[in-house]
Amino acid sequence: MKFLKGTLTTNHDVARNRKNLRFGAAILVSASLALASTAVSASTASAAASGQLIIANAEPISAAYYDPHSAFGLVDAQLGSLVYDTLLVMDKSGAVSPSLASSYKRVSKTEVDFVIRTGVKFHDGSALTPADVVASINRVMAAGSPLAFALLAAPGKATAVGNTVKVVTEKPYGALESALAVLAIVSSDDVAHPDNWKVKPNGTGPYVFVSNKNNDITVTENTSYWGTQPLTKTIILRYIEDTQARQSALLTGQVDISTRVGPQEIAGVKGNSDFNVYSNMGPPSQIIQIWRDSGPLKDPALRRAISYAIDRKTIAAVIGGGMNAVAFNGMPTNMPFYKPAAEHFAYNPSKAKALIKSLGYYGKVTLTMSTSSLVPKQAEIDQAIVGYLKAVGIAVKVTQLEVGKFRSTYPDYDISLNTIATFDNDPSFSLGLYAGGIGKAIFGWSDPKMDALFAAQRDDAGKSRAAKVNAAQTYLWNAARTLWVSDENWVFIANKRVKGYERSPLVGEALIVKASV
Q1: Which residues contact 430 (CB under 8 A, 6 or more apart)?
Q2: Residue 293 sits in which domain range?
């Protein structure tokens, strides 16, 4: 077994070193030099694609249909990154460079201009135009957009002038470049006729959608791709819910890569030279226990009391195998501008019990919890939390669900374990999950003060942004808006026959064109 990107005992050092690689550059007004494209045309590809790569996931696709701007899960992002392209692309270090944009420049604090690449076609044969780019961006920038990817945007508008698309935000938005390394460019016809996405995705990317059946999503190489031709002909995203079955499929060669594995799976390939273990393979991410803002949990005093009842350090060390850092504020520890809060809510069951008794909840509350196998060691984490709460007079009724059902019904339960990954490697995405319509949808929570704090940090592209990010994350933390169990270090295991596999600090597989089997 070979470890890549460092050992698991030092994995957070790698992630922390990454956290400001591009953030500062993105917010500088002086970054006005147009960047030349480094894309390689399809005609220069050195070898024809061959072989089949199967990626095993613990979750199914979660979007109701193939709209990439509605994506909110790992498999959604995987498929989107294979089928669609973005204006910019992020490499494994977090640096961005042109993709569908042949060049770009930051004109001012509020404007970035993109020259759109010519000769690019969607999979249905229609040509990519600046109008498609404008429609894609404005769709998520629209005020009150219900799309998940609205978290990547700030209020503003895109317009086309000839072959240049000008993206102008109402206020400075330093994360625009990183956001546009994630935002899929779609056909304006699909924007006008969204039912098209109920049939199949239609992008300009290196892979073409083939089918979604029997828990397999299959894509094949786009032989007319404008950029670097992929080395692997066919990729299958396979949903295997059961952890042991997923590991068995990996060990027996039925799949090539297993994503977001836990300590038990890593131990299962220890000393086995047939496999490589890749650490830190994802974006800043957290394991959280979602607390719905209803019933007893609507009381922030109870949420704070419960926070003292749960030994997060022991959960991370014993159940999580020491893979994940424990945060002491409302963002992952490897997020730009993370700063521990003064109050750590350190494990103190006596204090928790006393507070719960003083609030009149002791022995009088039964919370509902849904559980599944979405998160590594989820059953064990959930049972630990149930035990900790029982010890301080809070009962929990647990319902076991299949992953797909779990993901679509968590608002029906008081508490449910989940993960929050930051799609664009920027604090706005993480903090935006608790603000506006997204916060209402996830937590049932609406808080004008949080909305204002979120907007204040998003709209600051200067040195003062760090303090504003800290104000927002600390407000969430002190309100005990959720239980931040730990960070989640994304660890993947790959068969050694997979060569050249790389990932950027994003959710999808935008760099998999370099991989071969």
Answers
A1: 284, 286, 331, 332, 335, 420, 422
A2: 285-487
